[in-house]
From TrEMBL:
UniProt name for this protein: PD40 domain-containing protein
Superkingdom of the source species: Bacteria
Signal sequence range: 1-24
Taxonomic placement: Bacteria, Pseudomonadati, Myxococcota, Polyangia, Polyangiales
Record field: transmembrane: none
Entries under InterPro entries matching the protein: 6-blade_b-propeller_TolB-like (IPR011042), WD40 (IPR011659)
Keywords per UniProt: Signal
């Protein structure tokens, strides 16, 4: 008998909390505690002829956690492998006669719903995991008062079946076994058969059960994730924050909280006084950030750029260990003032346009009743695309009670400290831009009408591109396959190799874009082509939930792409948010900014794989079980964030 301690038993956590509020990545290198890793991808296993987009070389697979980039994992055993133990695993509570209560392995009737992982059957893929991912967790929805569960795993190259008994409907594989079959190569690139059965230990009868498969990819995933976590639709210093973790971490850390943000002198929309002097300061000092909203990593990974609360100014803040909240040394007072203008949209940066003397941010710039600058009035219209030099030495003076001199100074430095990109052929609003990693192209949402940096309601939205062209812009072009009349296509994001664009799609143009229940995640080649609907949109059928209808949104790619794998495939990883049912799901009380549907969301990971012939396969979603179910988690970013390592599990 093998007994696993309490640290491996995960119960269902029921919670109450929230999310929807103020409302969007890059790469250094950070090594979390727990191993130095083997050879990096640039040093050996990348393979000839592959497309490896790995800026730092990675940490390596065996013995550590890849951080800078993905690496190939080689199988360490072909047959008669002993990674699965010969003896059953008991959770410390399950009765010793559990095997007798279940009987022969095929003794069950259908009826148990396996929610995690999303398993494949009838020729459909099950979930695909990076080899170094958070250890696999199994969660079922009991059907007939079951209180004892058997988890049985079988792989073709393993001598034994893994068999475990638990009194909880949630059970995670012991970490040492997960590492053995994953990052150490024990059972990679093959289907692993899962059968889970449940009985009532006091009245066993015939078990209920279900079966299916999942797979561990022969590659790892690199980087770290930082996401927006909210507990209320009301804006206070404690209701929104950024939370982060590295791939494989079982705990998270608070990467940035509102009280930590040190940038000051944020003006009201009219520009005559500090924000909060005559309005509700939301519990923060006058002129300070009130809310951490849609965020992206700077290319160094040491900072984030995020959208603040009304009137939607932008802020750049450090998240580096020991410096969280500090104003970056390069972010000058003039640049801070320029980005404090009202009604800006989500920022975006590019690795190729980032370095001393050339740190540029792009953002939408909403129409207002003055040409540019601070004003009390904004309206619907066609937002423009603006660039900002974060290192500008321009002086933008401000005198309390006056906005005219400040606006005159902003006009005076237009074209040198900031300016607009030409977008020839675009007659609609430019919203939610994303900048390619090579710095050449901006992809964005073209909205029939935009509002203060956001997409307005009930309008046509399409995905288009425009060249950067050294701040000059150029002619816009619709992305074939993602600019379809009569449907909503929005929130685009370039993959790390710039070959794919992930975006949201809804089947009509009615209603609000933000947090649309019928939103789904698609990908399309960046040069246009047939759109691909991701299998990850769909919850397991046994849950009774279907998509459209579960608010799939905010897809963001992992920071590296790995090709040259011996099996001829190229692996992409993607993170997104979804309001599908989970333990602890809750309804958020609405306020004036809330969308019609305020179900809480959680984060999910999925894979898109390109084979040697250029065909794409997509896979079901993987629930990221280390996140807090008491917060609604949105707008994730998966980059190479330089955040502190989370603490070890308790």
């Amino acid at each position: 008998m093998r007994v696993i301690g309490a640290s491996f038993i995960l119960g269902i956590v029921m919670a109450v909390g929230m999310a929807v509020g103020c409302s969007a990545g890059g790469g250094g290198d950070k090594t979390p505690a727990g191993g130095t890793g083997g050879a990096g991808a640039s040093g050996g296993q990348g393979g000839a002829g592959g497309d490896i987009f790995n800026p730092t070389g990675g940490m390596g697979a065996a013995g550590g956690t890849p951080v800078g980039g993905d690496v190939i994992v080689n199988a360490n055993c072909k047959a008669n492998c002993d990674d699965f133990p010969a003896e059953p695993i008991f959770d410390g509570v399950a009765p010793s006669n559990a095997p007798e209560l279940f009987g022969a392995p095929d003794n069950y009737t259908p009826g148990l719903c396996i929610v995690e992982p999303h398993l494949g059957d009838s020729g459909k893929h099950g979930a695909l995991f990076p080899a170094n991912w958070l250890r696999v967790r199994f969660r079922v929805k009991p059907a007939n008062n079951e209180n004892l569960f058997e988890i049985r795993l079988k792989a073709a190259n393993q001598t034994n079946e893994l068999v475990a008994y638990s009194v909880s409907p949630v059970w995670a594989m012991p970490k040492e076994i997960w590492e053995a079959i994953g990052v150490k190569g024990g059972a990679i690139d093959q289907e692993i058969q899962v059968t889970i059965r449940g009985v009532n230990s006091q009245n066993p009868g015939t078990p209920t059960g279900a079966t299916g498969t999942f797979t561990i990819a022969p590659v790892t995933a690199g980087g770290s994730m930082v996401y927006w976590a909210a507990t209320s639709s009301e804006v206070t210093p404690t209701t929104s924050k950024l939370v982060g973790f590295y791939v494989g971490d079982e705990t998270t850390i608070d990467a940035l909280t509102v009280p930590q943000v040190q940038q000051g002198n944020i003006l009201s929309e009219g520009g005559r006084e500090l924000r909060g002097k005559y309005t509700d300061p939301k519990g923060v000092p006058q002129g300070r950030a009130q809310c951490i909203g849609c965020h992206v990593s700077t290319p160094s990974g040491e900072e984030v750029g995020f959208t603040d609360h009304w009137p939607w100014n932008n802020v750049v803040s450090t998240i580096k260990e020991g410096k969280a909240g500090e104003v970056p040394t390069y972010f000058t007072a003039g640049a801070q003032r320029l980005l404090s203008q009202p009604w800006l949209g989500m920022m975006t940066f590019s690795k190729a346009i980032w370095g001393p003397g050339n740190r540029i941010a792009l953002t939408p710039y909403a129409n207002r009743n003055v040409d540019i600058g601070f004003t009390d009035s904004t309206g619907y219209g066609s937002d423009r695309l603006a660039w900002f030099d974060l290192e500008t030495n321009a002086s933008i003076p401000w005198t309390e009670g006056q906005s005219g001199p400040t606006n005159d100074a902003i006009k005076g430095v237009q074209g040198t400290a900031w300016g607009f990109l030409q977008t020839s052929g675009e007659s609609q609003g430019i919203v939610a831009p994303n900048w390619s990693h090579d710095g050449q192209t901006i992809v964005y949402t073209s909205a029939g009408k935009s509002q203060d940096g956001r997409i307005a309601d009930n309008v046509e939205t399409d995905i288009k591109t425009v060249p950067y062209n050294n701040r000059q812009g150029g002619a816009v072009a619709p992305v074939q396959g993602a600019a379809t009349p009569g449907v909503s296509e929005y929130y685009p994001s370039f993959s790390a190799d710039d070959k794919l664009i992930a975006y949201n799609r809804a089947g009509n143009t009615s209603g609000k874009i933000y947090y649309r229940p019928d939103g789904e995640v698609y990908v399309v080649p960046s040069n246009g082509g047939s759109p691909i609907r991701l299998a990850a949109n769909d919850p397991p059928a046994c849950t009774g939930q279907t998509s459209p209808g579960v608010i799939n949104s905010w897809a963001k790619w992992s920071p590296t792409v790995l090709g040259g794998v011996p099996n001829g495939k190229t692996y992409y990883w993607l993170i997104f948010s979804s309001a599908r049912d989970y333990p602890g799901a809750f309804i958020v009380p609405p306020n004036q900014y809330s969308p019609p549907d305020t179900r809480s969301s959680q984060l999910y990971m999925t894979a898109i794989v390109r084979d040697a012939q250029g065909n794409y396969e997509t896979y079901p979603a993987v629930y990221i079980w280390n996140q807090d179910p008491k917060t609604s988690n949105l707008t994730p970013a998966w980059d190479i964030f330089d955040i502190p390592p989370p603490p070890p599990p308790k």
